[in-house]
Amino acid sequence: MARNKLNPTKKENIYWYLDTNKKKKYAYRYKFYDQSGKRRERKRQNFNTSLEAERALTAIKATILNGGEKMVVNDNMIVSQWVEIYFESKLTHWKGTTPKSYRNIIDTFIKPLIGQYKLSRLTKSIYQSKFIDKLIPIAAPKSIETYHIFSLVV
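Above: the chain sequence. Below: its structure as C-alpha cells.
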C-alpha cells in the first residue's frame, strides 16, 4: 500500500492528503522528546476536517504535557531525580512485589552510589567504578546483574 503524501496546512502540525477515493482528508503529526531525550512522534490521520484533526492534536499535546508522556526538561537532571520519574511512570505496570523490589534497589544502591551524578556527565567508567565495582564485595553476582539490568532500564 502506498503512503499518502502529507501536505502542510496553515495550522502547525496539521496536514492534508487525498485518500484512495481522491477525497481530501486531514492528519496531524506531533514531534516531541520523551523521558530519555529520544525524539518521538504521535500521528493520526483520516479526519474529515482540519478542525477534527486540530482537536485530536490538542488532546494529545495535553496528555503529553500533563505527564502522560513525561519528558526530560532539564539537562542538569541527576540520576536520583531521573530514577524517581521512571519509577513513578512504571509503577502501574508492575505487579506483585516488583515495585517493592525496585524501590529497594533504588534506595539502597542506585541513589547512594550514583544518584548525585548528572545524567549528561555519567560515563561508562564512572558507572563501572562507582556502581558495579562497589557492589562486587557486598552482593552476589546474580544480584549485581539484576541491579545492573534495572539501572540500565532506568
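The chain is about 45% helix and 15% strand.
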